[in-house]
Fold these 2 entries.
Entry 1:
Amino acid sequence: MAAIPKEKPSRIDEARAQFARYKADVKARGKPFYPYAMFHDTIMSLVVVCVIIGLAAMWKWSAWGPGHDPTHKGLLGPEVDPPADPGTTSFVPRPDWYFYFLFYLLRIFKWPESVFLGTIGVPTIALILLIGLPFLDRRRERRLSARPVAMVAAVLTVLSMAVLTWKGATANEALASEVIADVPHWVQVENLPSNALPGAKLFATAGCTACHTYAGAGGSNLGAPDLTDIGTRNLGIDFQIRHLQCPSCVNPGSPMPHFASLGNERLHQLAVFLEASKGAH
Amino acid sequence: MATTYRRTPTKAELRRQRMEELVNYPLDWLEERSGLVGGVRYFLFRNVPSDVNWMQTLGSAALTAFLVQAITGVILAMYYTPSASTDPATGKPVAWESIVNITDHVTMGWLVRGMHKWGASVFIILMFLHMGRVFLFGAYKYPRELNWIVGVLILVMGMMEGFTGYLLPWDQTAYWASVVGINLNGTAPFLGPWLAQFLRGGQEIGGETLTRFYSLHMLVIPAAIIGLITLHLYLVIRLGVTSPPWSKEAAGMEPEEEEPVTARPGLTRPVPRTAGGTAMQAEPGGRD
Amino acid sequence: MVEPEHPSTDTEHESLHEEAHLPPPTLWPIGFAIGIVVVLVGLVINPELISSIGGAITVVFGFLWARDATAELRGEPIVVEPERRQMREAGHGMTAPPADQQGVALPHVPETGVTRSRFLEGATLGLGGVIGGLITVPVAGFAVLPGFLGQKQHKVDLGPVSKFPLSQWFVTTFIVDPIEGEVSRRTAFIRNNGTVSDPKTKKQVPSFTIISNHCAHLGCPVQANGPTGAILGQPTVIEHTKNGRVKLDPVVPAGYGCPCHGGQYDIEGNRTAGPPVRALDRYAFEIDNGNLILLSTYSVSHVVGTGAQAKIYKYKEAGPGEHLDGPEQWFYPLQPPHH
């Protein structure tokens, strides 16, 4: 111990000296926790309790639906969702808001090889970094201006969490059970003729919008082209049918699945609808 | 309790001393037999830096939110039935019905459940904000590393409370969020499938899953959180609260002129006082 | 089981060399532990006979152990010896010893043999371990094992095969276990493929495609991409079988889509886009007395071909998100038991 030269104190000795100085300072110049600091704590706790009760009241009284339906959605969501149905064919699951970032992370890793990165990998790494923070950043420096790396990391973390949470909150699926409600809107903006209507309903329900977007509906997560004005390319009914039957036959390398299982009559309806789609007005 | 001052006591201190003499016999009785009063006095009258600010109330605010959760949770457990079986009279799951009953029929039930439901979100938010404050202040640095880790564990436990509690209403969101959450664990290499099956209590989510989530939610994890919070608070009291890093009068700031700090004896040990009871008695007199 | 002591008979020789050591070697604790194990086993098998034998063994060996352990006490005058280990020096981050003891020279302790304090230390830790084991083993077993053992196999009666017209898909919802009730409600996409020649018996056997609706990514409820009965103008069929209410909703799927993270499948359940790691699981089935009976599910990496001609790459049932082929399969070498 004594061998350490005075001019170059070791990092831990410096830290210990600083902490001893801190203790001495607090003893000499500090103020008692009660009532000075505790007063602020009490005010803050009062605010917290009021916010909790306020949220509870707003939740209950805005969700108090017609006929006292407990699943009626108020300002802050329903009192309770419909009972669990493990065999559901129409429910779209979403987590609680503070798991939205994780939920969206799972959507980002949309390749089978990367699934466990989203499920286990990234959260585990994040947790290890969080726990290991005091050992990663071992300098004594506490001023913000002298900790650029920490500040940039903090801003990036907050930003990415905020973006992931926001994207998770607004992520919607283009499922048949949801998109079918958009068909009247399509008829209006696309000025669809009546013979295109069966095709439009098929388009909405057959999962096309899982990959394609159409007049603002559908998911672009998988990157397929927008079909709002596919009809302006005048590809022809026959081509559309052949393409739907076997996309990669007419368009080599296309990742689009085959739709032959819908049957020729329905493919014809779809083709009519696609050819009638001349863009939203 | 003998209180010694190294200088003439101020008026406030004299007043406090007189109050203490008037303090009820029961308190003295308790103190003599347990030392608890001294402990509480130490907690209340220990010095904190003079420049602590409002951001440093987030920790105690999170504690308040946790207490709200604990109290409302205990009461909710008196009315809630953790059963996934179907009520033959209505064809609805019993757990779901008991939640509807609490929210719509039991007097004040909506308020207590509402406080529990929204208190959960508030608790999580406050923990994140508190963690952000600690990060901003660099308060995780020597000698407070261990307390940072304890804090992270409390956050993890808090999120586990959120996950296990989310299933209890046994509604659609609850069920499917738990399916995904459990299967997430299931994708962990090697032990994942076993962990998932343990969490489900079988091959499929069912009544077993609900009861074990209930047990975890109201017994196991809260006990762990209470233990961790106790340790967290002990370390806060032992190590003290940091000044804001931008403060002009921050406690422990570098002195203007270089001091041969390491040469001074006694500074190589991080905390001069020993832990536990003796520390509690060490400076009972408020400002000195 | 935590053994309180080293049961080795070589202890006497070793004790000459080992720095830290436990009490004088004795075999009684082992007998004591065996007695407790017999009591526990007896509780499961035959409480009256085997447990009482175990109890007798425990009592006898416990007595002998106690006698052995206190021999020193009874035979010799009680000598309280101080702790044998050296205090570590202050300055190594350890708490310094109290000042009044700092200068006291530690009495000389012979290198061999076991001091009383050593013995008490070992016995306390050992017995504590026994208590811990006695509590932990049954509790942990109770918490963990039931979820893995005795998983029931279910047979789900979906009603007469004639309700499934050739080549028509149905979104079929059924109860797996009528006793469990609604909790066991499941959905499958079912198509009657007609008959196919069995390669072994050369007989014509019925073929069904029965795809589970649990996403192979994380288990969300997959939906059929295609018009269902309401749009097609075809009625939903409700049947009542041994398993209760079975709902058959006709559908013309172009594939299946997952509402959680966007996974997409073709009509045979092969992944076409998004994160699923494999094809959708399927149900094994049998035809019993003209009724379609669903058996266990199994996992599928992919399917080549379609309908009755489909070649299905079958695997043992695995959890969602677990790869069945490719290098990632080595992440999941051991699956929990499955019915």
Entry 2:
Amino acid sequence: MSSVAREWREIPGRYNLEGSKCECCGKVYFPKRDFCPKCRRESLGKVSKHKIDRKGDIFSFSIIHEAPECNDFLKPYAVVFVKTKDDVLIAGQLVDADLDKIQIGMPVRAVLRKLDSDGASGVIHYGFKFVPDV
Amino acid sequence: MRDVAIIGVGATKFGELWDKSFRSLGLEAGMKALEDAKLSGEEIDGVFIGNLSAGRFIDQQHIDALVADYSGMATHHIPATRVEAGGASGGVAFRQGVMAVASGLHNTVLVGGAEKMTDLDDASINHIMDSTADAEWEAGMGLTLASLYAMIARRLMHEGTATREEIASVAVNSHFHGELNPGAQFKKAVPIETVLRAGPVASPLGMFDCAPITDGAAAVVLCPLEDAKKYTDKYVKVSAVAQASDTLALFQRPDITTFGATVAAAQKAYSLAGITAKDVNVAEVHDDFSVAGILALQDLGLYKKGEAGKAFLNGDTKVGSGKVAVNTSGGLKARGYPIGAAGVAQIVEVAEQLRGTADKRQVKDAKYGLAQSVGGTGSAVTVSILEAV
């Protein structure tokens, strides 16, 4: 079970793919970072909010058949690493896709969906999932 | 810094040990190691214990205190420290113990690792394993640890670095050796068809590509190399123990077909030991998922990229092949994977090999042995090198 606050503080990243951009070296990060691991101390205070491109291509994927309890009803379901158009690798589920036709290189885009929930009366988690971009 | 020796080793049987508690497992391994070192226990002046998640597996935090108490060390007020580093908990605990003796702050140290997993249901256990990846941005998005390793496997196959058969043969190798280890969870060799036809877990990986859920404990006793002869004539030298880190999330890395932390720790370890990969005779690598075995041999420099899978498939990794024998204990796959114990159990196996007490699994004239312990998807890695004396 997670608290409402824990869910709420991650909303910018979960809903809007808001990551970070280092103003020193220009590198884009997702999820957000408060400082740039490359520029280190120099980047303190110089990391700005940056929305990741919602479109990209599948970099790798897997179909999950053994899932944690909160996702048991979904199985089998697809998960993917996506290389976005701004060259950031992000992880998520792939939905509305024929599981037999998923391929590396397939174009996808991020949409807002329900992720899971903490039981019948707990917090409902929303966030991005990917769908085929056709 | 002082040179350090391993003067005693011990491990429980690994498996689904319904009649054994966390306390009895830890005590059994520790006592076996002390007995092997011919110590009464009074000599021990420090304890380090690797454990992933007793807090979630058996609702017991503060297991450093529990271990000190039940091993009879609390009455002497011997310091005990619990170490957690995901799947590398045992490897990192071993490094802490070696550093404690090498520094001169401690003289005789017991390093243990223990995990009691089977008191929980499978789904809950797997969820705890998933939290060794990025809980917020991998597990929280619906990914499992198995699916992350599956993504690695998929990329290897896509890039032509390994075939599905080569990946499956990592499990075949572990089971081949498991049959020779009386302490293993699965003492049964399996043909590659069994691995390929097993039910899917996270495609392309199936049930036989994944290490099992296991109860067990392992322990080793350390002292300064110059004092080792006082206790026993069957000791081995710790030539190096190196540790490295990487991003918590796999997707944050530029290349997911190599573990940079293994590469870094291996380079450091070879340098400290004054050897190269060519000198290694026996290696225990972290095959929590079959594909990890291929990454390990390549990242450790034992095989070139694209060659490790072929070595597993050809049987070059088996004891008696004349090449580096890999996972002679049965590895995590067949010996079993009680998480916090795994890294220490690897040290037990390599020490047995180097002192010539590995019975049916014995690698002839083994001089140098290596153990690689991995947390999450390579976010923490230790590489230890032991040497026969």
